[in-house]
Design a protein that fits this description.
Layout: H1 3-19, H2 26-29, E1 30-38, E2 44-45, H3 47-60, E3 65-74, E4 77-87, E5 101-113, E6 116-124, H4 126-132
Parallel strand pairs: 1-6
Antiparallel strand pairs: 1-2, 3-4, 4-5, 5-6
């Protein structure tokens, strides 16, 4: 696929899966052998685990919205710098709802093969998130 096609795939991931919560699209966009590195958590393996993460995030932040700030593509990799915004109004991980709004930044490097995500490296501002939720000072 071309660099432009890979960038479009990244935009679809953010808009359709993470913003519109179209979980059926996960099987179309993620390879069966997908591996996601989401420090400090254990690796995510396969589309089913991506689906679980999407459900967890939407449960904790039902109004969540991702905005791509920058998008860079090169051969088989696309990098997105994004902003996440949402209100913590549901259970999230082991934290009960705080009702607080969170805005945090993140970066994802995605490797794409045959029109699907095969591996990703994700970094998010978890410290800032926990501070905004009042969970740590």
């Amino acid at each position: 696929m071309s660099t432009d096609a890979n960038k479009l795939l990244m935009r679809r991931q953010f808009e359709e899966i993470w913003n519109r919560h179209d979980l059926d699209l996960i099987d179309e966009l993620y390879a069966a052998e997908y591996v996601g590195h989401y420090y400090p958590y254990p690796d995510i393996r396969g589309p089913q685990m991506v689906r679980q993460i999407a459900i967890m995030l939407r449960t904790g932040f039902p109004d969540s919205r991702y905005t791509i700030e920058d998008l860079i593509g090169e051969v088989d990799k696309v990098v997105a710098r994004y902003t996440f915004r949402g209100t913590h109004s549901g259970d999230y991980q082991r934290f009960p709802p705080t009702g607080k709004t969170v805005e945090m930044t993140g970066t994802v490097i995605s490797q794409i093969a045959d029109g699907k995500f095969v591996e990703e490296w994700v970094n998010v501002d978890l410290l800032g998130q926990r501070q905004q939720l009042g969970l740590i000072s």
